[in-house]
Amino acid sequence: MPEMSLKDSIITSLSAQEPWPDNVKLFQPYEVEQILLPDNASCLAVQAFLKMCNLPFDVEMRWNAEFMSPSGRVPFIKCGAFVVSELEPIVQFAANKGVSLCSKLSTEERAEMRAYMSLITNVLVNAELYISWVDQETFNTVTRVRNSSVYPWPLGWIQTRSKRNSVIKRLKALHWYDKTLDQVLADVEQCCNSLSQRLGDRDYFFGTPTELDALVFGHVFTIITTRLPCRKLAETVRQHDSLVALAKRIDEKYFKRA
Amino acid sequence: MGTVHAKAQTENVNSVGGGLFDFEEPETLEEAIPKPTIKLNGVRARVDRVHVDGLSRTKDDIVRSAVDELFHATDFEDVILKAHKVRRSLDSLGCFKDIGVFIDVSNGPGATPEGLEVTFQVRELTRIVGGINTTVSENEGNLVLGVRLPNVAGRGERVSAEYSVGHRSSSNFSVAATKPFTRSALQPVLTTSVYQQNHEYPWSGYRLLDRGVLLDIAFRTSPATKHNLQWEGMVRDTSVLSKTTSFKVRESSGPVLKSVIRHIVTVDHRDESIFPTRGTWVQFSSELAGLGGGVANIKTELQAEANKEIVPGFVVQLTGAAGVLHDVFGTELPEFFYLGGPATLRGFQQRGAGPHCDGLATGGTMYWASGLHLYTPLPFQPGKGGLGELFRSHLFLNGGCLAHPEENSQAIIEALSAVRVSCGAGVALRERGRCACAGSATGCLSALLVEVQKGPNLIHIIVLMKQM
């Protein structure tokens, strides 16, 4: 029976401080036929963050990325023996290795950045989940097809059903399930307003790129470029020119796909 | 001499039946016949009537077809033998708690001169049987609740349900419905079950949650040959046990749909299933996965065992097993073969032999294993004829190899010749129809290893030497 000895855990924590290796892989679902709006946003955010940090990585697409991830959410990176999932733990992990984008920021600015990041996870992520899983038209024509594309029948149906139930459970707990689409869009509008006010006419939120920029890029870029039958979400976000410009700027600077 | 003859015959029938049903023979019946000078097979007899007392739920037609044979008896010996046979087939219906046989001269209207009347006194099983028990398996304690409805529709159908909760809050359940077709050829038994099972494999670092449907048709082509034809459809959810689990194991997480057709044939010529003294046992199973679902492979496995008593009480057992898995697509860790542990390669840790990655067993596609066992009475034979009969000293030497070779013959031969061997001694204990082992034993090469192992029906505490 494998046991985690004290020796192992010491080695683990020591090697966590080693520099960033070359063979880091980022795992995510298939971009073309599988990935869903919220997952795509967070995958893009992590990719943008790693590119901003100049940390080399390869993207690997797996149908079961979600299940391989230690937290059950995508994306996750494999760095040596470590498996780290989602943006914030990855930011922490990079900081442990001495790579940080917000080292020049003051304590207040960092707190502000955290506040904006949690605003995004609380509003944009939930809105994306709402559009994908609760909005009937989007669910039927996009989410259901894409989510079950990697499974044989009838497993696709079972998986989609159980995932939908768990998303709805989450949204119910956060009192988002009872909202109408208009209420959701109003929340998004408000969130975008405060983000674009903070951004003003600067290039980045805090002068230099930070993980907040990466997160905003991930969500805004995904929302405005993903074709969905429900265009209202994209239209709401598109009205904020400064955010769209930020997304385009980051896309051009870091994702120039030659 | 008649009695003796009749009895010997009966015993013969019994052994051909090969422990088909554990049936207590009411010796008194045959031995009650008083004069040993009558040749039973010389007494002409015919069965005029058969009574079956005590039927309420059980349908007449299956009982009628079971007793039909009695009417073909021509002499008294035949009647006795056939009565025994009928009694056995009534028992195999699974409807009765106990069955008594009573043979009398027939009288009343319509009675013939040599006529006999046979009466079966049966007691039906209760409508519902329930039970609660606790089990301790490899790494979990379980509370098992079971309910059984025997003979639901009067023709031997039964429904059973089992629910178990483990202390690690894993819950398993199964519901099975069984229907025997006693009147058709080969007497097939059809079983349908629905189940959910949790398995944890700390040696490989993953956990399985299986939910599925199993259809099984069991039939016999000869008294010793049993076939099972199965179709199983399941959703298998694999997840890793911890954050530090090897990435190779992590890669196989996620739900898969699997559809399997399986054929298992078992030929059992042993005199007993636990501590046999003679006879062979062979099981051959073939599996074809991939008719629907996300996993396709072909799997074949052969297991065999031969027993021989060399000196009274000393039984040598030779065992062998081999398996081959051919992956077509989607075959992940849970499908592979694993070797090691009391059920496969005694003396090794569970799944201890074969390919490993970061200390976790990752399985292989080919294996063979063989063993030589010697079962003897306990030294100095304490409790001989009584408690001591439940114990055996057990010496073993076994070896085997599990590999995951490339598909080319040279590599296969090379991979399969990396043999792992272990030997040791222990004490085996028979425990109410099952067999458990406990004990201690002899020396060792460099270090003394004491291991406690528990297989499906064996507990073993052994000190052993290993050649790694």
Automatic annotation (TrEMBL), chain A:
Start and end residues of each Metaxin glutathione S-transferase domain: 189-250
An annotated GO BP: mitochondrion organization
GO annotation, cellular component aspect: SAM complex
Stretches assigned to the Thioredoxin-like fold domain: 41-138
InterPro entries: Glutathione-S-Trfase_C_sf, Metaxin_GST, Mito_Protein_Transport_Metaxin, Thioredoxin-like_fold
PANTHER family: METAXIN RELATED, METAXIN-2
Name of the protein described by the UniProt record: Metaxin 2
UniProtKB/TrEMBL annotation, chain B:
The POTRA domain, residue ranges: 45-125
The keyword Membrane is annotated on this UniProt entry: yes
Subcellular location: Mitochondrion outer membrane
Main localization of the protein described in the UniProt heading: mitochondrion
Keywords: Membrane, Transmembrane, Transmembrane beta strand
GO cellular component, one term: mitochondrial outer membrane
Origin superkingdom: Eukaryota
Gene3D superfamilies with a match to the protein in the record: membrane protein fhac: a member of the omp85/tpsb transporter family
Transmembrane segments: none
Entries under PANTHER family matching the protein: SORTING AND ASSEMBLY MACHINERY COMPONENT 50 HOMOLOG, SORTING AND ASSEMBLY MACHINERY SAMM50 PROTEIN FAMILY MEMBER
Family: Belongs to the SAM50/omp85 family.
Name under which the protein is recorded: POTRA domain-containing protein
Organism for this UniProt entry: Leptosia nina
